[in-house]
Specification:
There is one protein chain. With 391 residues, this protein is an alpha/beta fold. The chain has 2 domains: 4-155, VC0802-like; 177-219 and 247-372, Rossmann fold. 29% of the residues lie in helices and 22% in strands. It contains 10 helices and 14 strands. A 7-stranded mixed sheet has the order 2-3-1-4-7-6-5. The chain has a 7-stranded mixed sheet with strand order 10-9-8-11-12-14-13, covered by helices on one side. Strand 2 (28-33) and strand 3 form a beta hairpin. Helix 2 crosses helix 7, helix 3 (71-79) runs parallel beside helix 4 and helix 5 crosses helix 6. The longest helix has 20 residues, at 107-126. The relative contact order is 0.11. Mean pLDDT is 93; it is low at 378-391. Bound molecules: S-adenosylmethionine. Residues 171-175, 198-202, 204-205, 257-259, 262, 285-287, 301-303 line the site of S-adenosylmethionine.
Length: 391
């Protein structure tokens, strides 16, 4: 069987984790770029990538590519694609265009031309055209333009893959599920270790960790665009689903938050997340939260000044100083990982970060800081204030 080509976009900074996931599902010709990974594989690889990738945002099937000079060239490329192999005029469509250094002026006009190409294709073939639905289309068509080349993709995922299907309430500033999964992987957490998020919000980190430990695929509770396409191989898709083996072992996962609202969101999300074991959670102030085990991984994304208007930089500094004193006094043996866009957090905490991993939380340029809490760190007068090295 000939190989199909794909591109999977993902949060910037997590490409190497997506490479590992794709290797595990036997994808071939894996090539990471900024913000995504290109790969090849058969239909089973595409089904598994959609079902199992915790990091990818979508799986795009590459249909064709050519050099272009103007909108007409892109129209002709789009009109040549074998659309009727995948969907019919009864399916609704949406076109999205991304361009880097394209000399063409209007992305809206290119979007319109590609829509015309798909509609004209079906009108010529069957005398009917598909309609556009920009909110819940059956088929999303993507065009990616560089300075000289245009590539057309058909989305196989539908809703973005970080929408796992369990989130009830968005909370105040929830992490995207694929970024949360990436943080858990980057922390090196193993399912046999305790994991604690003391500022859990809606619980994204702890839920993603639980799903990972239980082997519950992220796509377990949702549908995919490829299920609506004419190319669906029901037997193969059923086999991919039958191969899933859930691990029901109880894991030591703990979550808390100062806000009653957040804890309610977490409780509701937990009832829908599909975890095969309960997670311990409570409403409490992180400044007072005692460690739930002798050692383990603390992983959190604390509130950011710029996301919560009322918090000033000096309040942030005071909060992190108090929290660090609490951690130094009680959390010896724990490794703490904090995702924040505030580079001064290590300075506020008077701790030296042993790792600083650059990541993007949406548009926010963040760091995942690693702090190893060692016995006696509370007694040190002032550990070297950390300077950002500008990574
Ligand atoms: C950026 S949000 C975390 C979002 C979470 N990762 C999610 O995906 O939903 C920060 C959280 O810290 C909580 N918080 C702020 N101060 C706190 C404190 N002193 N103790 C515990 N939680 C606190 C807020 O209530 C908020 O839910």
């Amino acid at each position: 069987m000939s190989l199909l080509s794909f591109f999977a976009p993902c949060p910037r900074g997590l490409e190497h984790l997506l490479v590992k996931e794709l290797e595990q599902i036997s994808a071939e010709h894996i090539k990471p770029t900024n913000g995504g990974v290109a790969f090849a594989g058969d239909t089973a690889v595409m089904y598994r990538a959609n079902m199992h990738s915790r990091i990818a945002s979508r799986i795009l099937l590459r249909l064709g590519n050519q050099g272009y000079r103007n909108e007409d060239d892109i129209y002709k490329l789009a009109a040549r694609m074998p659309w009727s192999s995948y969907f019919t005029p009864d399916h609704t469509i949406k076109i999205e265009v991304t361009a880097i250094k394209s000399p063409l002026r209007s992305l809206e006009f290119i979007t319109l031309r590609i829509k015309d190409a798909v509609c004209d294709y079906f009108r010529d073939l069957m005398d009917v055209r598909p309609s556009v639905d920009t909110v819940t289309p059956d088929a999303r068509i993507y065009a990616f333009l560089t300075e000289t080349e245009a590539t057309i993709y058909l989305d196989t995922s539908g809703e973005a893959l970080f929408k796992r299907g369990w989130r009830m309430d968005k909370g105040r500033a929830p992490l995207r599920e694929n970024l949360a999964a990436g943080l858990v992987m980057l922390s090196g957490w193993q399912p046999t270790q305790p994991l604690f998020d003391p500022m859990c919000g809606s619980g994204t980190i702890i839920i993603e960790a639980g799903l990972m430990a239980a082997n519950v695929p992220p796509g377990w509770q949702r549908g995919f665009a490829f299920e609506k396409y004419r190319t669906l191989d029901k037997t193969l898709w059923q086999k991919v689903k039958n191969d899933i083996k859930i691990d029901k072992t109880q894991r030591a996962l703990y979550a808390s938050d100062i806000s009653a609202h957040a804890v309610n969101d977490l409780a509701r999300n937990l009832t829908r997340a599909g975890l095969p074991f309960p997670i311990a959670f409570e409403q409490q102030n992180a400044l007072k939260a005692m460690p739930p085990a002798a050692n383990g991984i603390l992983l959190s994304n604390p509130p950011y000044g710029e996301r919560i208007d009322v918090v000033t930089a000096s309040e942030d500094a005071a909060f992190f100083k108090d929290w660090a004193d609490h951690l130094k006094a009680h959390y010896a043996g724990w490794n703490a990982y904090l995702l924040t866009s505030d580079r001064d957090v290590p300075k506020y905490m008077r701790l030296s970060a042993s790792k600083k991993i650059p990541l993007f939380n949406g548009a926010l340029d963040c760091r995942l800081f690693e702090f190893k809490m060692v016995a006696g760190s509370a007694r040190k007068p002032r550990v070297v204030a950390d300077e950002d090295d500008g990574q």
